[in-house]
């Protein structure tokens, strides 16, 4: 069982931003910028392109809904999307609020935010998602 499966099942705490029966979104614990969110399928699948077409389509639509909530919570020019991550064998999408393309550089120094600030960020995104 991957760490992301444990997060989606509530076995490991996370900063929840959005969820439905199939997908879960939570803050990246090493964010590039405030609002950097990970979106995962609840079903454990390692590679995004191993998802069947219908599931992948629903995954992208869910990610879009999360991106809209992020943009409302953290006004930005666009919300960037990246699919990478060889460290965790569980498909995931990074959603990153962007003021410039530099915000999507994963070599940038990561933010160090307090637990209170992370929770406030997640709550802000979640409140926009459920509207």
Folded structure, characterized:
- The chain has helices spanning 3-8, 53-73, 115-129, and strands at 16-19, 23-27, 37-41, 78-82, 93-98.
- Helix 2 (53-73) crosses helix 3.
- The chain contains 3 helices and 5 strands, in the order H-E-E-E-H-E-E-H.
- The protein is globular.
- The protein has 131 residues and is of the alpha+beta class.
- Strand 1 and strand 2 form a beta hairpin.
- The protein starts with a helix and ends with a helix.
- Helix content is 32%, strand content 19%.
- It has a 5-stranded antiparallel beta sheet with strand order 1-2-3-5-4.
- The relative contact order is 0.23.
Quick recap:
The longest helix has 21 residues. 34% of the residues are buried. With 131 residues, the protein is of the alpha+beta class.
H/I helix tally? 3
Largest sheet: 5 strands, antiparallel
Task: Give the N-to-C terminal Cα separation.
Answer: 33 Å
How much is the radius of gyration in Å?
14 Å
List the helices and strands and how they pair.
Blueprint: H1 3-8, E1 16-19, E2 23-27, E3 37-41, H2 53-73, E4 78-82, E5 93-98, H3 115-129
Antiparallel strand pairs: 1-2, 2-3, 3-5, 4-5
Helix pairs in contact: 2-3
List keywords for this structure.
single chain; alpha+beta; five-stranded antiparallel beta sheet
């Amino acid at each position: 069982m991957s760490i992301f499966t444990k997060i989606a099942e509530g076995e490991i705490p996370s900063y929840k931003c959005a969820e439905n029966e199939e997908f879960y979104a939570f803050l990246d614990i090493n964010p590039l910028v405030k609002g950097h969110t990970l979106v995962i399928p609840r079903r454990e699948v390692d590679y995004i392109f191993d998802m069947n077409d219908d599931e992948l389509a629903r995954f992208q639509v869910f990610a879009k809904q999360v991106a809209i909530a992020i943009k409302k919570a953290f006004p930005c020019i666009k919300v960037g999307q990246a699919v990478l991550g060889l460290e965790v064998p569980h498909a995931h999408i990074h959603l990153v609020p962007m003021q410039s393309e530099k915000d999507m550089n994963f070599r940038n120094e990561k933010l160090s935010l307090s637990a209170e600030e992370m929770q406030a960020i997640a709550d802000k995104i979640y409140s926009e998602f459920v509207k």
